[in-house]
UniProtKB/TrEMBL annotation:
<dbReference type="Pfam" id="PF01522">
    <property type="entry name" value="Polysacc_deac_1"/>
</dbReference>
<protein>
    <submittedName>
        <fullName>Uncharacterized protein YraI</fullName>
    </submittedName>
</protein>
<feature type="domain" description="SH3b">
    <location>
        <begin position="1"/>
        <end position="40"/>
    </location>
</feature>
<dbReference type="InterPro" id="IPR011330">
    <property type="entry name" value="Glyco_hydro/deAcase_b/a-brl"/>
</dbReference>
<feature type="compositionally biased region" description="Low complexity">
    <location>
        <begin position="110"/>
        <end position="127"/>
    </location>
</feature>
<dbReference type="Pfam" id="PF08239">
    <property type="entry name" value="SH3_3"/>
</dbReference>
<dbReference type="InterPro" id="IPR036028">
    <property type="entry name" value="SH3-like_dom_sf"/>
</dbReference>
<feature type="region of interest" description="Disordered">
    <location>
        <begin position="110"/>
        <end position="132"/>
    </location>
</feature>
<dbReference type="InterPro" id="IPR052354">
    <property type="entry name" value="Cell_Wall_Dynamics_Protein"/>
</dbReference>
<feature type="domain" description="SH3b">
    <location>
        <begin position="48"/>
        <end position="112"/>
    </location>
</feature>
<dbReference type="InterPro" id="IPR002509">
    <property type="entry name" value="NODB_dom"/>
</dbReference>
<dbReference type="InterPro" id="IPR003646">
    <property type="entry name" value="SH3-like_bac-type"/>
</dbReference>
Length: 333
């Protein structure tokens, strides 16, 4: 038979000439390696059965390993289940509420007995790990120049401001290739926080859970918090973030700087933030500049609202320190 373009199939073997043995529509056969791309999965390697799986959505427990079988019960999202077997199509045999059945591998995140797949931290989606009344200024995508990036990061550190930077993987790769620098490392060295923003900024809702999870790895930032491109989220996107052990952090105030393209309007909208807000801006627009940061901080201060402070180490004192790769459950703002 012919498998449609864009179909993800599970590989069970590889021949000496490179062809893959796969399963599709209830059949098993071989396909040419010339017309496929490899999708790397967060699941354990073949032969290694995960000790447990955790559901990333309300998930049906079925009598057999496919949607053709009857539903026994619906398992709530976030439930950890002990795995006893895995079918050739990837479905897991589990026990729940005194019943034994099968669940789809698409809507679970796996963990081995060694705990190699960390669980995503728990935090409010729109304000993330900021538990304080201070405002967090966040910047997505990619700076226009290395000079603008270093100047803005240095200003933030010098004036005790802790920004959240969300660069794409393509942005990081581009600056490494052109200048031999790691933007994420530069930001962390100045006491700034860095989160994931995918590799190439696609709408993750249009991808499978596995493909979206691949977008959260690759050349992107490897950490425990991430921001979906466009803030676009559905069950499959949540599945991807859970699969890689990353919490979603969006925003509570959007300046729409990419649309207005105005420094004064962007500064005014950011300055209107309420205590605890996460403000969205972008590194390629007017909010990401020393003078914009100066105005925003001063305007908020006039209203008695502070901005998140640069990182000063776990004790919160002394000089500005390098931020950890993985964000704490509560930012020391």
């Amino acid at each position: 038979m012919t498998i449609p373009k864009g179909t993800t199939v599970k590989v069970t073997a590889r021949a000496a000439n490179g062809w893959y043995k796969v399963g599709y529509a209830g059949r098993t056969g071989w396909i040419s390696n010339k017309y496929v791309s490899i999708v790397r999965s967060a699941a354990p390697a073949p032969g290694r059965l995960p000790a447990t799986v955790r559901t990333t959505a309300g998930l049906n427990l079925r009598t057999g390993p496919s949607t053709a079988y009857a539903v026994l019960v619906t398992i709530p999202r976030g439930t950890t289940l002990k795995v006893s077997a895995r079918a050739s199509n990837g479905w897991y045999k589990v026990g729940y509420a005194g019943r034994t059945g099968w669940v789809s591998n698409t809507y679970v995140t796996t963990s081995t007995g060694s705990g190699s797949s960390p669980s995503a931290p728990r935090a409010p989606q729109s304000t993330g790990p900021n538990r304080t009344s201070r405002v967090v200024l966040t910047f997505d995508d990619c700076p226009r120049t290395l000079g603008s990036f270093t100047a803005t990061i240095k200003y933030a550190a010098d004036h005790n401001m802790g920004l959240v930077i969300a660069p794409t993987g393509n942005c990081l790769s581009s600056f490494r290739a052109r200048y031999g620098v790691d933007l994420a490392a530069l930001a962390r060295a100045k006491g700034q926080w860095v989160i994931n923003h995918s590799v190439s900024h696609p709408d993750l809702r249009r991808l499978s859970c596995a493909a979206a999870a691949a977008q959260l790895g690759g050349s992107g930032v490897r950490t425990n918090f991430g921001r979906p491109p466009f803030g676009a989220i559905d069950a499959s996107v949540r599945c991807a973030y859970d699969r890689v052990g990353m919490a979603i952090w969006t925003w509570s105030r959007d300046t729409l700087d990419w649309s207005v393209k105005s420094k004064s309007i962007t500064v005014a909208r950011a300055s209107a933030a309420r205590p605890g807000d996460t403000v969205l801006m972008h590194m390629q627009w007017q909010g990401f500049a020393p003078d914009s940061l100066r105005q925003i901080k001063a305007n908020l201060a006039k209203r008695g609202v502070g901005v998140c402070r640069a990182y000063h180490g776990s004790d919160g004192v002394g000089v500005v320190a390098r931020t950890p790769v993985r964000l704490p459950a509560s930012l020391p703002c």
